[in-house]
Model the fold of this input.
Amino acid sequence: MSIWGALAGGFIGTLVLTTALRAANELGLTRIDLPFLLGTALTRDRARAKALGYLMHLAAGELFALAYYAIFVATDTSGWALGALLGLLHGIVSATALVNVLLPAVHPRMGNELTAANSSPLLEPPGFLLRNYGRGTPIATLLAHVAYGAIVGGFASITG
Amino acid sequence: MPQALSSDNGRRYVPIRDYAAIGDGRTVALVARDGSIDWLCLPELDSPSVFAAALDADRGGRFALEPEIEAKVSRRYLPDTNLLETTFTTGRGVVRVTDAMALPDAELGPTRELIRRVDGLSGQVPMRWRITPAFGYGARTPRLERRGVTPVATDGPHALAVCSWDAGEAQVADEAIFGRFDAREGSSALIALCAAHQEPLVFPRREDVEGRLEATSAYWRRWAGQRAYGGPWRDAVIRSALALKLLVHAPSGAIAAAASASLPEEIGGERNWDYRFCWVRDSAFTLGALLELGCPSEAEAFFWWLLHASQLTHPRLQVLYRLNGGERARERTLELHGYRGSRPVRIGNDAAGQTQLDIYGDLLQTALVYTQAGGRLDRETGKRLAGTADLVCRIWGEPDSGIWEVRRESGHFTHSKMMCWVALDRALRLAEAGHLPRDHESTWRRERKAIGHFIETRCWSDQLGSYTREAGREELDASLLLGVLLGYDAGRPDRLPRTVEAIRRELGRGPLLLRYSGDDGLRGGEGAFLCCSFWLADALARIGQPDEATALMDELVTLANDVGLFAEEIDPVTNEFLGNTPQGLVHLALITAAVSISNANAS
Done:
């Protein structure tokens, strides 16, 4: 088991996750765009937001890979199956709490439960299970995260 | 002149003449005189529609905004802009609606944004609005719901938010988002239709929407102010330039032939085509007009788009390309009622697969215009254009479908042969100027002579006193006027002026011209083809009849609709518009005719 393997898996897994969601966009399954959502937290410039968002998403992918690695070490187990399981959990948490609740709470341009008449949020909030972005969003998000987790787990074990 | 608008709810189809266009360089909305937006495709002009009431009043979807009581309507574009201003005068007061597609700014805004501002000018006018989005050419029923207080319509990757301020409470029902309010003197209501595609919706703030509306107006005024035209018919020329700018697909520089699809050339007929593609044929006119009007950046972008798009099929050219440069244009029919029952409703265009020899002349003429304006062709481009000339030498003797894209067996169309002559003539000129390799000059010269011989011996009729539509047939064709405009000259300079007179005599209907006599493989007839009338004015100026040309032009510009736009065709009896609108080729022909006549009068 290797931390460098987990980091490499995190990098490649994030690319795969982003690509999978982009493909789901093209297939008309969802309107979710994680780099756009992340980047607009920092800037109102649409193009810059997407570029920054990709960097932030890659960085977040590495942080989550480290968290996965910590679990691998704690359980003294790794591999694509455990990674995929963690990815599933990660996807569920993202859809129900991380992107659904936490992101709107900290995102300066997105509406949340506390938004009232004195503010005008610019961005459409994701809603429960991110379904505001299309009914196919939960399943596309879950599958993409399972793929991410499997890649992180697989890379961490191969290099070990 | 204001015209009465009934408060009748049984509206079906409005005359094509009633449509004005607003756009943002990505898509175009058609706005009827009664305030209804009956055509809008998102996110791009060639994407499926969200409003298509122009093609199906029941299922197409539209965005109505109108007084609840009877009103007289007058319209104009705000001077030198693409912002449309519709004034409703009612018994209870006057209200003005300003419509625009917003141009993006540095603020985080929607992907596409259609803005409608309602200003109360006097009295108190009850207003109503109703949005019935119908994605996918009316085939899909969207989910209507709310995000907070904002109504949204979603369907797969598409989403629309309806953001409104002082426009009454937005209601959401099964198939519509609607509201009503009173427009009082001094009041200002705002409705922004915000679109997202494959990403979350952005809900703009009122001050941002108003800021973008002002900035959009300022941009158009600035752009129109930079156009270098001081000749006659300036208003018509500048309006044409603004209409063309709406048809320019900003990311690629391609110019759509028209903003709409399947508006009929004959009411109730089958001549219904999708014009949301870029035709190579329009290229020389486009480049010439853009350069005449001082649009070097648009001209450069268009020329490079043309070379890029045609790279995949080189040395053969496809008749038309998608706005993004793609080749696929598969034609299919939609289950829509059709404008006033005109079916089939087609999207895509099978003309893409036809052989049309004239387009090679258009490409090489475009290259010549580009270089004459100071543009440079790199070595690779020069070799490609030389390859195109070589191809013309091999295929000019083949039959084709001709400029009018007949849907019957191919023929030997005179115009096509003339354009092959033009192709080789321009290749020789480009080679002499050092832009093309000179290896095959002798072949080009020999074949140019052979084409000229074919035209002069096989395509001239003593009986008609004119070049004919096809070799060996006694029919006329208005496209032969282009021989004058493009300087066809195979040693019989007396014949083109006689052809101009014959076309005017036989195909003329007042100031208008029919396209051709004879069969085209389709049932029914059609109206007068407007660009041909402008070509005639242009040709008259070039053959030394500038007074005739001026008189004709004076008549033609009055045939535009109330905001200065032209559709593809016009009924010579009723002056009803027919076909897709606004049509780029008509506006291009208007510009080039105005410039020609201006030059002829000056000399």
Summary: The first helix of chain A runs from residue 3 to 26. The CA atoms of residues 106 and 116 of chain A lie 16 Å apart. Chain A has a mean pLDDT of 90. Helices of chain A lie at 3-26, 34-39, 46-75, 80-106, 137-158.
